[in-house]
Amino acid sequence: MNAPKPYYPALTGLRAVAAYLVFFCHNAPDRIDWRWLPMQSWLSRFMEEWGVGVSIFFVLSGFLIATRYQVQATPTRAWWGTYLRNRFARIYPLYALLTLLAFGVAAWHTPWASAAPGTGQKMALQLVLNLTLLRGFFEQHIFSGVMQGWSLTAEECFYLAAPMLLIGARANAWRLLLYAAGLLGTGFLLVGVGQLVKNVPVLGSGGFISSVPFMLGYTFFGRCAEFLAGMGLALYVTRRPPPAASCSQPGPFTLLGVGWIIVGTALTATLRSTLPFSEMTKYHFCLPIYNFVLPVGIVLLLYGLVYERSWLRSVLETRLFDLLGRSSYAFYLLHLGFISSCISVFMIGHPPIKLVELIIVSIIVYWWIEEPLRKRIAQRSR
């Protein structure tokens, strides 16, 4: 019989916080009147940096997958089949439904009589790349369909790699550093492949891993440090189990992690506000902070939420935040796109109010669509 898997309710609540950070990153900077505040330009830029929520998702994924599977991961066909089916059930059904909706709406609104030649073929190619989760490798197609779904390509790559990484790392966690170097090296090699195939139809025209900044910003190979940082923390926690919640003590790591994330985000906002370069160059300049500095703060925060007693942990462990966390994936997929646009047009689109509206919709979608589909698919693996 398998031992019960550890569950950290505060980390479920943290998923909701991460999703809401991404929402404000995409919705607030251009929709909120900052003129009455000092440093209004910087504050708007600071909120644009709240895309750090995606980094929190990636570190959390590394931690949760390693916590769940580090002991039982085995290189057998039966285990892999069950593992992949469970991961598929968790991520894919809702994403596929929303992708089909997005392309259906796009096809409905396309003026086919006056459309440019090849429009239909391009849309069909993008649909295939979206449904196969390959779109995240192609710069020209990465934001097609459900725009924010680009991160699922990195997520699925991690799911495929995680068991083998765990089998090696559970014997020696320091191997994670070697894996990070190997994955980054593979990413640089794939950039070279992208240059070699740039004149090949589909691959080249789609921008297959077309540059180093693209690889570092959008692929699992460039973002691997975030996932591996979460895995490293999970391996540490397994060897040093935290005390029961009632016995945990206050400590500095929760506050240190929150402070680290805020300072790191403020630093990137300041750099992108003041550096005398193009927006793209400033983004490239900040990539090392996004990929390697901010994950340190996220790990510190997770450590604090697991080991320490704090007001933040108490809030995130409430039943409300448990529900918000469980429905956060639906929220993430809904916060941009057709349904989000409908809310803006037919309801109230001001960001704080729209946040509440989207939360309600995402909970309904979680209860009635996402979770029933997940259970039905997962039951077939038993």
UniProtKB/TrEMBL annotation:
InterPro entries per the record?
A: Acyl_transf_3_dom, Acyltransferase_3
Provide one Gene Ontology biological process annotation: polysaccharide biosynthetic process
Q: Where is the signal peptide?
A: none
The source organism is Hymenobacter glacialis
Which key words are in the record? Membrane, Transmembrane, Transmembrane helix
Residues passing through the membrane, by range:
6-29, 50-71, 91-112, 149-169, 176-197, 217-238, 250-269, 289-308, 329-349, 355-373
Q: Which Gene Ontology MF annotations are present?
A: acyltransferase activity, transferring groups other than amino-acyl groups
Q: Which residues form the Acyltransferase domain?
A: 10-369
rRNA-binding keyword on record: no
Q: Name one GO cellular component term.
A: membrane
Q: Protein name, please?
A: Acyltransferase 3 domain-containing protein
The superkingdom of the source organism is Bacteria
